[in-house]
Amino acid sequence: MEPLFVDRLLQITDLFQRDMARAFEGTGLTTARVHLLWVLQHAGPSTQQSLARLCEVSPRNITGLVDALEKSGHVRRSAHPTDRRAVLVELTPTAVETMTRMQEEHEQLNATLLSAIDPTDRPAVERGLSAVVAHLESLVTAAGATGPEGAR
Asked: What is the pTM of this model?
């Protein structure tokens, strides 16, 4: 019996998580820490309040992530140039190198995965994946609005 579509998606999720765990092994980086680095890479120096919003986590969670990344030498805190109460978080040169390498690996993986799909099928796969993402986002949003029972 063929696996359900959702089972294939869960398999892909599991494979990505295992690959990320392997890639981060021994680095002190976790998925949450890398996500924060990724956000900083794209947003530039940011306040912790802004980072909490962008990462969709609590301010307390961001503080813990920034503390850990500062301790490992990936980020540094500095005074905000215009707001005495705020602190900016920015990538260190080491983190910029790490994120540049991750971006290159990300692009290589993208090319490798696309090469598994016949070029004539790629537009249909892209449309299908986009539709699944959009629908799943709407289901998650609706579930959040209706409580723990969700909407389907």
From this structure: 0.76
